[in-house]
Amino acid sequence: MDTPPAGLAPHATLPRHYADPAQRDRFVRGLFDGGAASYDRINAVFSFGSGARYRREALLRSGLAPGQRLLDVATGTGLVAREALAVLGRPQDVIGLDLSGGMLREARAALPIPLVQARAEALPLASESVDLVSMGYALRHVADLVRTFAEYRRVLRPGGRVLLLEIDQPSSPVALAALRFYLGRVVPVLSRWIAGRGRSQQMMEYFWDTIDACVPPEAIQGALAEAGFTDIGCEVQLGIFRAYRARRPDATP
C-alpha cells in the first residue's frame, strides 16, 4: 500500500507550549526527558486505577499470546511493555520505542527488552515484522495520525493488530468539568509536589491540554481506516478510557 497523504494532526498547535508545529518534536522530547525520572510516581496519581491490570487485559483482548512479537510505541518508562512481557515471556519478543531518551533510560533500568529511540511516524523496523503494535496514552503527541497509522500498518504482519489506549473527554458536562479541574489543575500541582523542580508540572499541564484539544474518536477511527486498517472498534470504560483496536487485512491470495 502506498503511504497515504499526511494531514490529520491529533490537535491544533498549542501556543501555551510551542508556537509552531515544526517545534512539536523538540518540545515533546525535552518535556518528557525532563519529567522521566518522576513519571511513574505521577502516573499513579492520575491513572484512576487504569494500572497494570487494565493494560494487560487490553493486550489480551487484542489477541496478544506467547509466540507473537509486539512493538510498543511511545513506551515511556515501559508500563505497557511490562505487561506485554508478562504475557509473551521472552524479552526479545517485546520492542519498546520512544522519542524521549530520558524515558528510555527509565525503561532500560526496569526492563530487559530491546529499546529504540525514534519517531512513531518513521519506525526503524522491517515491514511485516510484528504481530501487535501498542501505544499507551500518546497518540496526542505525534505530528500526523494517518502517517503514524500507516507506519503501524507497514510493520504489522498480515492479520496483525493495533491497540491504542487513550483518555477522552467524558460526554457529561459535569464530568468534563471535574476531569478538567483534576487533570488540568490538581494533577500538575501534585506533580510539582511529588517531583520537585523540573518539568513534571508542565508535562502534566501539557498532558491535559492535548486531551482537551484532541480530535474526536470518530476522527481517530477515520484515520485508522484511511491508513488501511479494518475491523476498527473502540471500547470505553468509565466514560474516559478508550481502547481503539484495528486489524491489518490478511494478504491478498
Automatic annotation (TrEMBL):
PANTHER family noted in UniProt: 2-METHOXY-6-POLYPRENYL-1,4-BENZOQUINOL METHYLASE, MITOCHONDRIAL, METHYLTRANSFERASE
Keywords: Menaquinone biosynthesis, Methyltransferase, S-adenosyl-L-methionine, Transferase
Organism for this UniProt entry: Neoroseomonas oryzicola
GO BP terms: menaquinone biosynthetic process; methylation
The protein's name in its UniProt record: Class I SAM-dependent methyltransferase
Signal peptide: none
InterPro entries xref list: SAM-dependent_MTases_sf, UbiE/COQ5_MeTrFase
PROSITE patterns for the chain: SAM_MT_UBIE
UniProt KW Electron transport keyword: no
A GO MF term: methyltransferase activity
